[in-house]
């Protein structure tokens, strides 16, 4: 197995993780900044990556910033915001060519690191805040992003199910924030919030490519020294233990032709648990792949769904089942999905299902080694949860999972919420 190991060095309050590999012709940098997911900060946090990508002190206009990326041999700058359990994460990335493969050997590694450091720590300002026109433009963009959620019915139903299932829990918040917060956000306050984040929130900077850790650390030490002076705060892991007292059923009505049936379960299994690999195999057999029980029984045998699958939100201990169905098939689809959950509890798992799932999972994990971004993502999971599991350890753990292990995790899974998005016709009852 190719080298996928990261070496970690702390520079001030920034943790730098480097994977040196000859496999890649480009060098990928990704910086993650973690914040608690909460209502007071969710929209401000969602706005920051977009504002920071508008300009830096040495490239204050969007045109200058684009020109800089062109000068870096067509480097790609990207940013986003997402949630992992009850952590709200900002992501900034830069992909650049490796200078060793270019004829004129420009100092791309050095220039790329300087530029990314500037994007993070030296944004363009105006008075005591961010540049007002950039903040206003990005508020408009974020407003559109939040509003457009309802246009994508699959994502909308998934978010609504989470809101209902995790009511009064931070996880219910949408990672792009709330419309009602946007008006109050102004450039000075947002800049003050940004400074607080950079001084207190954990920052992890990744580098994957044909580079040496010594070279990356030397180049970063000088550039980070003026900024990386705060103290990293600890952001606690979300609790996954959540007793389900009763099944909730929620029906929303919109102008839709196809029903969206989403079911949320509590797995009661932490990502740090020794049972986690068994939960991953459980999800694979239940609904992770085209050979899974949900796909075969709900979609193929009963022809009830256009799609039917399950996925884990491992940091919060949730299992989400998603399906698109004819509205009249609601009850039949719910019944067959419940039957599959019960079959897993009873250990009704064929050897072929188990072996095929393990093989498919092993392939998908191995494929991650060929993509620098996936390698980074996999390692960052260990940083977030405080337990390192290498790719090799995960593959070995999956191979060892037995039917008994799967039954053990299956018996902890509790159905919490059934969410149905349907048309506006018919009776008040979801089924009619």
From TrEMBL:
Official protein name in the record: EF-P 5-aminopentanol modification-associated protein YfmF
Coiled-coil segments on the chain, per record: 132-159, 327-371
Domain of life of the organism encoding this protein: Bacteria
Signal sequence range: none
Annotated Peptidase M16 C-terminal domain residues: 185-361
InterPro entries, sorted: Metalloenz_LuxS/M16, MPP/UQCRC_Complex, Peptidase_M16_C
Keywords noted in UniProt: Coiled coil
Species per Swiss-Prot/TrEMBL record: Laceyella putida
Alphabetical list of Pfam families matching this protein: Peptidase_M16_C
């Amino acid at each position: 197995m190719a080298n996928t190991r990261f070496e970690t060095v702390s520079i001030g309050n920034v943790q730098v993780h480097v994977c040196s590999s000859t496999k890649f012709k480009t060098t990928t940098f990704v910086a993650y900044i973690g914040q608690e997911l909460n209502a007071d900060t969710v929209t401000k946090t969602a706005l920051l990556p977009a504002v920071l990508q508008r300009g830096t002190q040495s490239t204050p206009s969007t045109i200058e910033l684009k020109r800089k990326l062109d000068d870096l041999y067509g480097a790609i700058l990207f940013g986003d915001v997402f949630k992992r359990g009850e952590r709200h994460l900002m992501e900034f990335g830069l992909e650049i060519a490796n200078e060793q493969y270019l004829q004129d050997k420009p100092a791309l590694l050095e220039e790329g690191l300087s530029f990314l450091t500037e994007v993070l720590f030296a944004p363009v300002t105006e008075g005591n805040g961010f540049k007002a026109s950039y903040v206003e433009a990005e508020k408009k963009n974020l407003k559109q992003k939040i509003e457009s959620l309802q246009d994508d019915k699959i994502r909308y139903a998934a978010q609504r199910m989470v809101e209902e299932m995790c009511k009064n829990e931070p996880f219910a918040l949408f990672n792009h924030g709330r419309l009602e917060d946007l008006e109050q956000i102004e450039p000075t306050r947002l800049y003050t919030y940004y400074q607080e984040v950079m001084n207190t929130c954990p920052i992890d900077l990744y580098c994957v490519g044909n580079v040496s850790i010594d070279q990356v650390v030397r180049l970063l030490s000088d550039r980070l020294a003026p900024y990386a002076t705060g103290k990293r705060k600890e952001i606690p892991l979300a609790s996954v233990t959540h007793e389900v007292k009763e099944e909730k059923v929620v029906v929303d009505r919109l102008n839709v032709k196809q029903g969206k049936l989403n079911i949320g379960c509590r797995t009661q299994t932490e990502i740090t648990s020794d049972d986690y690999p068994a939960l991953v195999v459980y999800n694979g057999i239940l609904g992770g792949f085209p050979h899974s029980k949900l796909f075969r029984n709900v979609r193929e045998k009963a022809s009830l769904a256009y799609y039917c699958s399950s996925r884990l939100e491992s940091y919060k201990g949730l299992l989400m089942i998603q399906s698109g169905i004819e509205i009249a098939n609601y009850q039949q689809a719910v019944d067959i999905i419940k039957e599959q959950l019960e079959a897993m509890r009873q250990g009704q798992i064929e050897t072929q299902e188990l072996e095929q799932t393990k093989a498919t999972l092993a392939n998908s994990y191995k494929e991650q080694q060929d993509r620098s971004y996936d390698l980074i993502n996999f390692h960052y999971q260990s940083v977030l949860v405080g337990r390192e599991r290498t790719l090799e350890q995960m593959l070995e753990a999956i191979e060892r999972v037995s039917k008994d292990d799967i039954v053990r995790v299956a018996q902890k899974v509790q159905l919490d919420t059934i969410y149905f998005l349907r048309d506006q016709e018919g009776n008040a009852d979801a089924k009619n």
